[in-house]
Amino acid sequence: MNNIDIANLIFPEVSISTDEIFARYPKRNLKEGQMVTRFAPSPTGLVHIGNFFQAFISYNIAKNTDGVLFLRIEDTDRKREKVEAKKVLYDVLDNFEMKFDEYQTLDGEDVGDYGPYVQSQRVEIYKAFAKKLVSEGKAFPCFCKKTEGKEDVLKLRETKFSEDDEKEYDPCRDLSYEEIKKHIENGDSFAIRLKTKNQGNERIKFNDLIKGELEAKANAKDFVILKSDGTPPYPFAHAIDDTLMGTTIVVRGEEYIASTPAHIELFEALGFKQIQYCHNPLIYKLNELGNRRKISKRYDPESNMMYFCENGYPKEAVFEYLLNMINSGFEIWRKNNPDKSWKEFKFKPSQITTVAPIFDLVKLNDISKNVIVGICGEELYKNWLEWAKVYDIELSKVLEKERDKFVAVCKMDRDGKPKPRKDIFNYAMMKEKFHYFFSSPVTFAIEEQDKEKANEFLDAYRKDFKMPASNEEWFENVKTLAGEMGYATDNKLYKANPEQFKGNVAKVCEFVRLAITGEKDSPTLFTIMEILGEEEVKERLNIRF
Q1: What is the DSSP letter of 451?
Q2: Pairing mode of beta strands 212-217, 203-208
Q3: 371: three-class secondary structure by DSSP
Q4: Which 3 state secondary structure label does DSSP give 201?
Q5: Which residue ranges make up each domain of the chain?
Q6: Largest CA distance in the chain
């Protein structure tokens, strides 16, 4: 009996040939320079910022070359897959308007000619290629497994290999047809392993689009290409899917560099053209001592892309920050092109940083402030409302009911101002930031020693209060009353002789601001008063600290 007989024995249900499969996936008709990239996440319950980082690089490579970007769901690891995880993934991608040329909808409809775009629906394909490798003597069924009183022979072999570089073949790689048949008749489960051709002392060179030429120890392990449940681990599925789907560049984390020699051997065994790899650096954070560590879903809420959705960061701010981490030249480009879209910034894979970027939430917030400050009041209101409809239903009802009021709030110190305020970096903070528009303040940022003076001034101010017609009129009224009550109306005079006055005009303006907003700092107070209306302002001036 030969290898073809063994292949037919262990894969009796596989009737389709690899040639027939290739006929289903014709070569893409690409123009010169066009690249095909993909985002291939595993649905595990969250979208990690590191994975999204890769997706964003893939997106830019495809779009910068007028190429193709497709989404492939790698769901063959049942232990990691979680219920509803796919919907979470799609929600994040939708929130950031990450548009794919090819994908599968949540309803299971494939959009594109190279599907199915979900790996669990491609098992027949993997089995056909595994059968081919077995029939060529390049792969074999392995019946080894952990049982009580019996060591895992493969782990023993790998440990020995790592310690002294001695080759020790898997004991199942040379089983005869009769031995394999007996195992199958006994109902023994088996995995399919690639029969490595290496001896353990070879070196291999390969090119990385970011890091250039790399060298590593060649693979010398008979690694699994098909698990006992018939599903493939990442290396086998990746080689087959990215070849059939016409991927030209695979973007993945640099943790895969160590296993690249095994992947290259697999491509050679399958007779596939080697795909280009783009190993991006991993994202780190600084701990309390200033030491680097990988950003972690356990310790860092911002490692989950839903963090930015739930907190209402504009997608443009997140994209701009990611570009800062991808390419140090983006920051200079942005300064020189303040009004251009980030989409106009072009970069090549070779221009991606080789240094692991440090995630800095403070810097992201600063970038987000710059993005939000460039949004007009009407659009800011719309964005705030759309966020609230998803993450704060009660707030959305208030915003819709009092639309004119909150459009005016969003326009404060923004539209037409030469230097608009930069104090908002996400939509989640706006309710608290503008809390005094929802209800009268209940806490006040006033020092104990100022309370008596504040009450005295407010008692006089509210007696004949009428809503002024302009900010200038409001200030003159306050200034006049302040002078009558012993406050300095000339700041230079006050600085020269502070002991002669109760305070200055700035101090009494602060008293009014505290009564109306509870805060020492706010957008233009007259604008706030206009939005609240005369009756509400009168009511708030009745406060006693």
Answers
A1: H
A2: antiparallel
A3: helix
A4: coil
A5: 3-15+123-280, 302-373, 377-433, 448-540
A6: 112
Contact present, 215 and 205 (Cβ < 8 Å): yes
Q: What is the pLDDT of residues 363-380, one digit of tens each?
A: 999 999 999 999 999 999
Can you tell me whether residue 256 is helix, strand or coil? helix
Residue 415: pLDDT band with limits 50, 70, 90 = confident
Q: Where are the alpha helices (DSSP H) in 1-99?
A: 3-10, 18-24, 49-64, 85-95
C-alpha 229/C-alpha 515 separation (Å) is: 69
CA 113 from centroid of its chain's CA atoms? 28
Question: What pTM value is reported for the model?
Answer: 0.89
CA distance 85 to 77: 13
Tell me if residue 325 falls in helix, strand or coil: helix
- Domain 302-373 in the same topology as domain 3-15+123-280: no
Distance CA 240, CA 194 (A): 14
pLDDT reported for residue 81: 55
Give the 3-state secondary structure of 172-192.
CCCCCHHHHHHHHHCCCCCEE
By CB neighbour count within 10 A (0-12 exposed, 13-18 middle, 19+ buried), where does 235 fall? Answer: buried
What DSSP state is assigned to residue 356?
P
pLDDT of residue 150: 40
Strand partners, 215: 205
CATH class of 3-15+123-280: alpha beta
The alpha carbon torsion through 176, 180, 183, 185 (nearest 10 deg) reads -120
- Picking from 56-70, 72-86, 275-289, which range would have the lowest pLDDT averaged per residue? 72-86
Residue 163 pLDDT: 47
The torsion of the CA quartet 205, 208, 213, 219, rounded to 10 degrees, works out to: -20
Per-residue model confidence as pLDDT tens digits over 455-483: 999 999 999 899 999 999 999 999 999 99
Distance CA 413, CA 377 (A): 10
Beta strand segments in 40-173, E:
68-71, 103-104, 110-111, 139-142
Per CATH, which fold does 302-373 belong to? Glutamyl-tRNA Synthetase; domain 2 (1.10.1160)
Helix H or strand E segment including 277: strand 276-280
CA angle 369, 332, 212 (to 5 degrees): 120
3-state helix, strand, coil in the chain (%, to 5): 50, 10, 40
Tell me the average pLDDT across 29-47: 93
